[in-house]
């Protein structure tokens, strides 16, 4: 099992890269409205908060399955946010 520290880093890097991609899109498209990218950034921040909150739960029966579910959820969220960015 990967360490909790590495899982937190993965969450930070993945969602941070998505936010950075939103800012890059805004820079490349200065004449468009930034409400869509702001919504994606807000969603990424909320996802970060909820995933870190799930990591910090202490009384979990099966820790390996719990952290695997968090990893899968991160992947699903990241794919969803990237699809939204690609639709812009």
Structure, described:
With 88 residues, the protein is mostly helical. The relative contact order is 0.19. The protein contains three helices and no strands. The longest helix has 25 residues, at 4-28. It has one domain (4-87). Helix 1 runs antiparallel to helix 2 and helix 1 (4-28) runs parallel beside helix 3 (63-87). The protein starts with a helix and ends with a helix. It is elongated and about 50 Å long. It has helices at 4-28, 35-55, 63-87. The model has no long low-confidence stretch (mean pLDDT 93).
Describe this protein with a few key phrases.
3 helices; 81% helix; 88 residues
Cα end-to-end separation: 37 Å
Helix content: over 70%
Radius of gyration: 15 Å
Total count of strands: 0
* Major sheet description: none
Quick take:
The protein has helices spanning 4-28, 35-55, 63-87. It has 88 residues and is mainly α. Helix 2 packs antiparallel against helix 3 (63-87).
List the helices and strands and how they pair.
Elements: H1 4-28, H2 35-55, H3 63-87
Helix pairs in contact: 1-2, 1-3, 2-3
């Amino acid at each position: 099992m990967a360490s909790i520290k590495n899982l937190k880093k993965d969450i930070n890097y993945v969602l941070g890269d998505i936010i950075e991609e939103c800012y890059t899109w805004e820079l490349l498209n200065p004449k468009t409205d930034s409400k869509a990218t702001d919504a994606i950034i807000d969603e990424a921040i909320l996802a970060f908060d909820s995933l870190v909150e799930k990591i910090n739960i202490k009384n979990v029966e099966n820790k390996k399955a719990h952290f695997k579910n968090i990893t899968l959820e991160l992947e699903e969220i990241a794919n969803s946010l990237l699809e939204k960015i690609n639709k812009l």
